[in-house]
Structure formats: C-alpha cells, structure tokens
Amino acid sequence: MTTKHPQDTYSPRPDDHFTFGLWTVGNRGRDPFGDAVRAAIPPTTIVRRLAELGAYGVNFHDNDLIPFDATTADRERIVKDFKKALADTGMKVPMATTNLFYDACFKEGAYTSNDARVRAFALQKTMHAMDLGIEFGAKTYVFWGGREGLETNACKAPQDAIKRFREALNFLCEYARDNKYDYQFALEAKPNEPRGDLFLPTSGHMLAFIYTLDHPEMVGLNPETAHEQMSGLDFSHAVGQALEAGKLFHIDLNGQKPSRYDQDLRFGSEDQKGAFFLVKLLEDARWPGMRHFDSHAYRTEDEQGVWDFAHYSMRTYNILKEKVARFTADKEIQAILDEQRALDRQTVVDIGAGLRYSPRAATQLKQHVFDIAALRAQGFRYERLDQLTTELLLGTR
Ligand code: DIG
Ligand code: MN
Ligand code: MN
C-alpha cells in the first residue's frame, strides 16, 4: 500500500539538499539476531524513488554499487545504468566512501590491521573507490574506520594504530592531489561497534588527529548524530566545534536512544530537542553542506515503510527548520536573549575591542575592582528560556 504524502511547506524539495546513502534505504533489516526481512532494492530504483520523494542525491560505498567480486564488464554495465538513472532524474552524488568493514579480510582492521597485506589492500580498494566517486562527481570522500579498533590491547599499541591510519590518509591525500581530484576528506568517528573499542572514537579525537596529517587543509569531519550520542555527548556541540574550526565537511543525521548500540534511527524520531538545536546550529550558520541521512527503517517495515522512513526523515528536518524560524521570531525568547547579548557586550575594563593582550590591558585588568556581590546575584532566566523553547517545540507557542 503506497502512502500518499500531502504537498505542504514541509515537503522535501531538491534545493533542500537532502541526501541518502544507498545503504540506508537499501538496508535489508539484518541484525545480529535476525536475517534480512526485505528484498534488495537495486541502486537505480533507489535513485528514482528518492527523486520522486524530493531528495537531492545519493551517496555510496564502492560495494553498494559495484559488488566486491564484480568483473570489469559488470562494473561498466552497472556504472552505465546508474549514470542513466542519475541523468533521468537529475539526482547527484555529492559523497562517496569505501567499504572497509564488511568483507572478512578486514576483520582485524583495514588501514590499522597488524597484517601489512590487508593495509595495502585497503589502500588499493580506497583508490579504486575514489576513482569511482570521481566518475559520478563526488566532492566529499568519507572515511569511517569501522574496524579500526581491537578487542584486546595485547594485539597492538594504540600509537601504532594511529601511525598506520595517518600513513594511509597521507598516502591517499597525495593520491587525490596527484590525480587532481578536488576531494574534501571527511573523517567519521564512532566510539565502539563493531569492534570492542575503536580508535579515534569521537569527533574531538578526529579533530586533534587531523592536525597531525601532512595536508590537514584537505581533511575535515563527518560527525554522525548516533555516534556522538553513543559516547553520551551532545551532538550539536561536536558539530559546533567542527563548524568553528572550518572542518564540518559533511554530516550524518539520524536518531539514537541513549546508551544503546548504533541504532541509526530515523532523524528526529528520538531526542527532538537535540535535533532542533542541531538544525538551528546548521541553519543559523547557513551551512551549505548536504543534509545527509545515515539511518534506516525499522526492521518491522516492508518496502513502503522504507520510503515512508525516507520521506519523514526529510519532512522532520523541514518541520524543525520552521521551528527555528519561529524561535528567531519569538519576541519573549528573543527578549531573554537580548538580555544575554547586553551582558555579553558590557565594557568591563577599558582595554579596547576584543580580549587582545597588551601590557596596558593586563595592568588595567589587574587593577580593576569587581563588584563580586553583583556577579553572584546575577540571574540568567534560563528556566523561562528553556520552557519557552520547549513549549515552542510542543506546539503551544
Ligand atoms: C556508519 O555510520 C558509516 C558507514 O555507513 C559509512 O561508511 C559512513 C558514511 O556516512 N557512515
Ligand atoms: Mn551509525
Ligand atoms: Mn555514518
């Protein structure tokens, strides 16, 4: 049974720049305790159905499109058919990535494996996958080190894993430069799963790691909602730090219940307040990147449920975007924020604009007498601010 979605202000449109990985709507519902519940959906069908729903593009791991054991002839046919589906629909491929986690050969990692042959094969596979992404115009290349971890610390020192990961990325940055691929590399962190522990488990770890690379300017982040929340962290803070550092090159949006495995739930289906503040952060910053969903439908769903999942992922983003506009226009909310802005703009000590050091500034600051009692007495009205925000989200404002 096909769900009829009303056309309204929340209906997704291509210029909303919503994208999905082929593996998301193509997820067949397998889990560690159950077999697939849905048939595979061909990539060309995914392109056509997502286009009908108003998406802008699709992304892929190499093997989402070209099977691991495909022949050259297979590859040529698949690429030709996929290009036709993209041309017919106007759908784009903004991002590509490599599957370095599914095949058994990666069971001990890929770039960080103790087996030098696996490390070399992972580099070869990535170069071929980068070539494939370029064929479809991808501008962002994501690295999720799904198996870059361990179960026992006896097997390797963490420094060795970090060094190997750095060597691989430095090599691949040079490969991109040598071939004039204008890729931006986006590193994606995850704290655990499918290994016992993963190296570089949060966006913060990844950000520090980027500055140790030979070409840090080529490399940024692809933070994912569920992955930061699995560490008990606020996702919008990770995204805010990436933005502030000029390193938000891509984003994986989804939903997650606290302290659970990586659920990759529909965006906005959990923690609506967190989703609101994430959308607010991206929209206030006018971030131009793709709104990419790395998530999948519940295992309970048939194929129609998958397309419902895709539609609602985009619809919820647009609903929250409208809530952000209401927050900005809300006079009572803005009145409290105006009080904060006034507190922020006070001239405390006459040391010129911004906190720039000078011997005079240090002297002035050291001599200044603060009214500590007044500082202690200052109230911020955040209970009211948060209640007004909550009521806006609950629809009573
Ligand atoms: C998991 O969250 C990872 C893989 O799905 C993929 O490598 C990456 C792409 O966004 N996210
Ligand atoms: Mn995930
Ligand atoms: Mn992801």
List the helices and strands and how they pair.
Elements: E1 18-21, H1 22-25, H2 43-53, E2 57-61, H3 62-65, H4 72-89, E3 95-97, H5 116-135, E4 140-144, E5 149-150, H6 158-178, E6 184-188, E7 197-198, H7 203-210, E8 219-221, H8 225-230, H9 235-244, E9 252-253, H10 272-284, E10 291-293, H11 303-329, H12 331-345, H13 359-367, H14 372-377, H15 382-394
Parallel strand pairs: 1-2, 1-10, 2-3, 3-4, 4-6, 6-8, 9-10
Antiparallel strand pairs: 5-7
Helix pairs in contact: 2-4, 5-6, 9-10, 10-11, 12-15
Residues 224, 226-227, 262, 264, 294 line the site of one manganese (II) ion.
Main attributes?
single chain, 397 residues, alpha/beta, TIM Barrel, 2 domains, 8-stranded parallel β-sheet, two-stranded antiparallel sheet, 15 helices, globular, binds 2,5-dideoxy-2,5-imino-D-glucitol, binds manganese (II) ion
Number of strands: 10
Regions with pLDDT < 50 over 5+ consecutive residues?
A: none
Assigned CATH superfamily of the largest domain: Divalent-metal-dependent TIM barrel enzymes
Bound molecules: 2,5-dideoxy-2,5-imino-D-glucitol, manganese (II) ion
CA distance, first residue to last residue: 36 Å
How many helices does DSSP assign?
A: 15
Rg computed from alpha carbons, rounded to a whole number of angstroms: 24 Å
Shape assignment: globular
